[in-house]
């Protein structure tokens, strides 16, 4: 879990338990449920039995080597090597690896993946655990990745194009500004020169022997760990690891695996960066530690981590309060002590996203709050709240200790191997927290910042837009804003916490009927006011309840002019708070409680989503009741939310990809009277009416009679009946009978080409869209989804593997039932501008092949296996079942269809897919291409 490093909170128990606290020098014991071993060649392994999800196992190969170990001639090759192991090994030559894994339900990029960072390279492989052949092949794949890559010159040269296309996807304002500030942020450190993606020049020109040498030097047993977590037999897995990995030896004279520091410096470095394509303004302040980072291994380290977590939680709570004030200095701001780039150095870091003209103000506010904490510390009430929050989250983790997904453990074991972090059991952590927390005082947390804030090792980075009329801050102005020594700072004053979410007396209603669906395992309560409550009791998690409510109506019931006045305001309406409490008061009230409630008004429905623990379920019900009956009206809260939204959206159009998406949207939908740009203009904001938005929100939630409320998780019949009568059956009812309204909003018809020119980087984006009206068919909807996956497979094979023209490509399709029958199929990928037209032609040819001949049966089988993998896992997840219930309501379908999914899926044929390709991928096609401005003729 490593929850002690979260900025959340913890637990208060009798002081008598303090006597049981272990010596602070005592080493934290390793979780006994994980078997850790080391082969004679130095390879480390971690094995844990965990039956969630059932019949699955997660394998991970971790290499303690990344881009920081490259020579000048090898820049970018640590990451390039990651590509090569997927491109051919001793057992799986060429692309057979991807084909094989897809055939057993492992989706490339979604299930199967990898990453390369400065200090490590990590490979992920989830596979079935109930088939001995597949399981053994999984270990063979890991073995091949580690030691048996086919680094043939032709294969290396063929992959250059793919890696360069990945490099191309990262080009943009963020990358340009980062290259400018990294030399100051990482002063005199090799990290600044070893970005994992490398340089285009070296990717194009490196000699094949350089990557072979990197593989030989660093892919060796004593720098590797194999992690196995899943529904397995531990002894059998240990035997497989020994069988596959014990035979390999380290080089005779291995290169030293050095660590690379980020050197200290006396100066304060300031880096002010602007770019014409920057979409936001940001501020970062780093107070880098003098000493190197050390792992947490002792009880004393654990205590210090708790103190740091409490400190960060309290400081960030203060910063969050700023964001809820009128005309806030930043959209969001936060501070924490943690890792920088690389694992060798940590820093106290304060960051904020600001309006484009408020960067200096944000620097000053962050500096003031740091100084306020340093000078006056925190209040006892702040500390008490932080402790309660820690308690709630630790308790939840402890309660769900036997329901964790296998993926929850992989990162922990990886950190143990790479950084030496302790990996205790959650039971041990929970007990240790209960012992230590009551002893922590204000003095403990107030002392934390004293060692953080210093004049040396300090870096301030500003990034933001460059445009006419906007003044760029100077370095001297930034330093002046950081210096708050002459600012009058007073102690923080805490507010009184409200006592209840319910201000008015509630007259409970009645349950007038109950029905059960034994197939789904659901119970439905019919309430006297017309509302329904449907719940499904599960044991997937001990401490989780998910919630959703739906009613038909939404924006589609209002006229075009009203819609344009409220569309950008409605999402801000809940920000006024409920029950007379604003957002800051609600945050304080919710201390120690784990629940969330979010109301919305959408296109054809309005509703609420949320979650809670069983212990806090009543608070969820109370909040739902308050959103229906006691929603605040607050012009200042709205103006605050509008200010933050405007700050966030102000420069998005400067980003070529966003500009492109808006241009496509305008082109496809601009002919509709109801249409307005997704990014509001200043004129749109002036036309926005908060009062009208508030009234619509109130009107949509004035009638509970046509709402259905859904709960999935660890609920009890007693809870659901009692809370439903008190908080749901008491809601107002108007007995409206509303249906879905079609406003006539439609996409452009016909065959079109739209070229958009924006940006300076040498990259392009292609999107091919097919849209139109149809009669909804469940069978065709599934076939369209399959067509999307199959086209994706073919484009990866043709455009990536054969042409080297893309890094990735995606296709997806579906049919929609409401507000009218329609279909939507889209294909998209980034590429080189000079190759765009050629790749479009190849793409259309692949579509045409499927239309004429149908898809390859093996590709349809891959889709079916992948869907079955996801479906089998989802059947034991609360989120899936909540989706089944809410979607069945929204789609006006029988939720029992979910039980027939496997049967329906396996009846899908090649002809079904061919038929939808022929039917839908012809007319109403729009090809849209984004190219740099220099490509405009």
3D structure, described in words:
- The model is unreliable at 1-21 (pLDDT under 50).
- Helix content is 39%, strand content 18%.
- The protein has four domains: 34-245, 2-Layer Sandwich (Cytochrome Bc1 Complex, Chain A, domain 1); 262-394 and 421-482, Metalloenzyme, LuxS/M16 peptidase-like (Cytochrome Bc1 Complex, Chain A, domain 1, 2-Layer Sandwich), CATH 3.30.830.10; 511-728, 2-Layer Sandwich (Cytochrome Bc1 Complex, Chain A, domain 1); 752-935, Cytochrome Bc1 Complex, Chain A, domain 1, CATH 3.30.830.10.
- The radius of gyration is 29 Å and the shape is globular.
- α24 (778-802) packs across α26, α24 (778-802) crosses α29 (910-920) and α25 packs across α29.
- It is α+β, with helices and mostly antiparallel strands and 937 residues long.
- The count of strands amounts to 23
The amount of beta strand, in percent, is 15-25%
CATH architectural name of the largest domain: 2-Layer Sandwich
Based on CA inertia axes, which overall geometry fits? globular
Instruction: Calculate Rg over CA atoms.
Output: 29 Å
Strand order of the largest sheet: 12-13-14-18-15-17-16
On the 0 to 100 scale, the average pLDDT is 94
CATH superfamily of the largest domain: Metalloenzyme, LuxS/M16 peptidase-like
Counted by DSSP, the helix tally is 29
CATH topology-level name of the largest domain: Cytochrome Bc1 Complex, Chain A, domain 1
The description of the largest β-sheet is: 7 strands, mixed
Helix content: 25-40%
CATH class of the largest domain: Alpha Beta
């Amino acid at each position: 879990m490593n929850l002690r490093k979260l900025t959340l909170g913890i637990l208060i128990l009798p002081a008598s338990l303090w006597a049981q606290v272990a010596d602070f020098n005592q080493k934290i014991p390793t979780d006994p449920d994980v078997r850790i071993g080391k082969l004679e060649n130095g390879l480390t392994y971690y094995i844990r039995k965990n039956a969630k999800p059932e019949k699955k196992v997660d394998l991970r190969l971790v290499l303690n080597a990344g881009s920081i170990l490259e020579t000048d001639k090898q820049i970018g090759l640590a990451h390039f090597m990651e590509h090569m192991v997927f491109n051919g090994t001793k057992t799986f030559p060429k692309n057979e690896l991807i084909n094989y894994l897809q055939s057993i339900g492992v989706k490339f990029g979604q299930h199967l993946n990898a990453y390369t960072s400065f200090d490590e390279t990590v490979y992920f492989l989830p596979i079935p655990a109930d088939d001995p052949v597949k399981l053994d092949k999984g270990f063979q794949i890991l073995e091949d990745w580690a030691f048996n890559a086919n680094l043939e010159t032709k294969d290396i040269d063929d992959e250059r194009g793919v890696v360069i296309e990945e490099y191309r996807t990262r080009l943009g304002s963020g990358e340009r500004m980062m290259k400018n500030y990294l030399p100051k942020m990482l002063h005199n450190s090799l990290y600044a020169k070893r970005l994992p993606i490398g340089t285009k020049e070296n990717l194009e020109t490196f000699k094949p022997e350089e990557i072979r040498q990197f593989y030989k030097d660093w892919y060796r047993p004593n720098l590797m760990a194999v992690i196995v977590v899943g529904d397995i037999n531990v002894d059998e897995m240990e035997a497989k690891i020994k069988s596959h990995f014990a035979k390999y030896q380290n080089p005779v004279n291995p290169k030293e695996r050095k660590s690379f520091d980020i050197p200290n410096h006396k100066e304060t470095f300031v880096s002010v960066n602007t770019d014409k394509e920057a979409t936001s303004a940001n501020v970062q302040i780093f107070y880098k530690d003098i000493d190197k980072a050390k792992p947490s291994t002792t009880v004393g380290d654990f205590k210090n981590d708790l103190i740091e977590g409490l400190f960060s939680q309290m400081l960030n709570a203060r910063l969050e309060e700023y964001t809820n004030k009128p005309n806030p200095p930043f959209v969001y701001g936060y501070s924490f002590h943690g890792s920088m780039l690389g694992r060798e150095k940590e820093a106290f870091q304060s960051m904020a996203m600001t309006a484009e003209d408020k960067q200096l103000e944000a620097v000053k506010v962050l500096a003031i709050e740091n100084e306020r904490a340093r000078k006056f510390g925190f209040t006892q009430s702040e500390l008490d709240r932080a402790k309660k929050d820690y308690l709630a989250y630790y308790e939840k983790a402890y309660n769900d200790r036997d329901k964790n997904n296998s993926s929850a453990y992989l990162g922990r074991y990886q950190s143990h191997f790479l950084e030496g972090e302790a990996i205790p059991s959650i039971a041990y952590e929970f007990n240790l927290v209960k012992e230590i927390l009551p002893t922590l005082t204000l003095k403990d947390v107030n002392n934390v910042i004293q060692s953080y804030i210093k004049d040396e090792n300090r870096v301030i980075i500003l990034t933001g837009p460059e445009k006419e009329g906007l003044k760029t801050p100077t370095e001297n102005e930034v330093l002046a804003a950081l210096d708050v020594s002459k600012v009058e700072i007073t102690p923080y004053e805490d507010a009184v916490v409200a006592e209840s979410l319910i201000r008015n007396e509630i007259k409970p209603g009645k349950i007038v009927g109950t029905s059960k669906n034994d197939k789904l395992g659901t119970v439905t309560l019919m309430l006297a006011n017309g509302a329904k409550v449907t719940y499904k009791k599960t044991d997937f998690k001990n401490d989780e309840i998910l919630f959703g409510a739906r009613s038909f109506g939404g924006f589609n019931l209002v006229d075009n002019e009203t819609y344009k006045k409220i569309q950008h305001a409605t999402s801000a309406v809940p920000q006024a708070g409920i029950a007379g409490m604003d957002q800051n008061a609600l945050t304080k009230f919710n201390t120690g409680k784990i629940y969330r409630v979010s109301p919305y008004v959408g296109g054809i429905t309005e509703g609420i989503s949320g979650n809670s623990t069983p212990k806090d379920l009543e608070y969820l019900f109370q909040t739902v009741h308050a959103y229906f009956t006691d929603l605040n009206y607050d012009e200042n809260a709205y103006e605050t939310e509008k200010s933050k939204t405007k700050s966030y959206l102000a420069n998005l159009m400067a980003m070529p990809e966003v500009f492109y998406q808006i241009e496509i949207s305008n082109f496809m939908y601009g002919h509709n009277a109801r249409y307005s740009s997704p990014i509001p203009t200043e004129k749109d904001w002036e036309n926005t009416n908060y009062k009208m938005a508030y009234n619509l929100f109130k009107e949509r939630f004035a009638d509970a009679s046509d709402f259905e409320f859904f709960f999935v998780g660890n609920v009890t019949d007693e809870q659901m009946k009692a809370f439903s009568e008190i908080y749901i059956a008491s809601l107002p009812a108007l007995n409206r009978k509303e249906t879905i309204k079609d406003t006539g909003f439609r996409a452009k018809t016909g065959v079109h080409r739209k070229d958009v020119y924006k940006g300076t980087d040498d990259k392009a984006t292609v999107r091919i869209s097919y849209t139109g009206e149809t009669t909804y068919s469940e069978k065709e909807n599934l076939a369209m989804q399959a067509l999307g996956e199959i086209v994706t497979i073919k484009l990866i094979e043709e455009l990536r593997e054969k042409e080297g023209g893309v890094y990735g490509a995606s296709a997806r399709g579906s049919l929609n039932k409401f507000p009218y029958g329609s279909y939507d199929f889209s294909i998209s990928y980034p590429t080189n501008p000079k190759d765009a037209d050629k790749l479009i032609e190849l793409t259309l040819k692949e579509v045409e092949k499927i239309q004429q001949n149908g898809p390859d049966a093996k590709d349809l089988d891959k889709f079916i296996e992948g869907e079955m993998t996801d479906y089998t896992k989802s059947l034991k997840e609360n989120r899936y079942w909540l989706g089944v219930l809410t979607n069945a309501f929204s789609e006006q379908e029988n939720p029992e269809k979910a039980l027939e999914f496997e049967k329906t899926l396996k009846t899908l044929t090649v002809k079904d897919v061919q038929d939808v390709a022929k039917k839908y991928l012809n007319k109403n096609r729009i090809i849209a291409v984004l190219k740099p401005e220099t490509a405009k003729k």
